[in-house]
Amino acid sequence: MSLEYAIVDFCRFAQANGLPAGVKESLAALEAVSTVGVGDRQTFKAALQAVLCSSKADWDLFAELFEVFWSGSGEDSRGRTQLRIRAVSEKPLESQREKALAVPIPGKIETGEDQEGKSVLGATVQERLKQADFSEITAADLADLELIALRLLRQMSLRLSRRLKAARLPGKVDLRRTIRASISRGGDPIYLSFRNRRLQQLRLVVLLDVSGSMNPYSLFLVRFAYALQKYFKRVDTFLFSTRLTDITTALRAHNLNDALNAVSHEASDWSGGTKIGESLREFVSAHGRLLTRNTLFMVLSDGWDTGDPEALAAELGEIKRRVRKVIWLNPLLGMEGYEPVTRGMSAALPHIDVFAPAHNLQSLLELEGHLRRA
Questions:
Q1: Whose CB among 65, 99, 282, 363 lies 3.0–4.6 Å from 244's, allowing a Cys bridge?
Q2: Global pTM?
């Protein structure tokens, strides 16, 4: 693969995942790399970033897409990036950019030592993966699903952020400011000044069940929490099975892989039993200050509980009285014929404002409506 082809393929990949990287930007990327060369990885990355990014959201997304395409997700990715750039740059960069742009999009490129790029996914494949149950995702589809999820969850979170920033509640007319402003216009109050009351951006608290029964879903839901935390005023995330683990700081890592690595070191009881009531009691005792009227409290769990259901009901009832809304996402709710009849789920239902599925990417994206209405 020539360097020109690789850069054009990366631009197509970036465009498919949310960056403005059309033909014009692809030509500019080729010209930028031709100018700066490929001797230094950071310079190479900066040249592409300068061409393809026009906002903070683009900047953040570019960093992850660059690592996925040029490095892969394994260990020592920085070193392999250098090897990849050197491998495709044995020949000088040619000026036939139109020829490079005319190369058809290849089929799926398998990850390996020589080729680690990702192809653009077709609409049919994307729709299939959006609807697929997380527990049924094969290893071959895992990387593609992660790329789709990265783009769509970022878009959802960004839309939520923009709505929150744009929302304003009109207040009363401020006579003093109105009269003062009218002096320069001959005393005519052409424009009215208001005492605006801004909507306070909501805080999100997420409790994620990582017990054995949640194994097929837990890692996807951690990625979901990571995407949300970038666009709320504050997101506090906790794992629980038999005890509570705060992973808020871990998920604030700039890179998703770094965040997941940090989480793996902190979660000592992953795939253990489930004591939801005791975990909620521990949360209220240690982190009760997070429960305010501007807090959305979200639990991601299948509701299988080995603890006391009365304790679960009591703790969740106390939380409900202190927060804006309680949201419970249950992966089993997406299964045909499922009924929430387990002791834990039955005890929790009276204290839940939103009870929704979380078994596939589409169900997670539908959460946007619930968060927007909150």
A1: 282
A2: 0.60
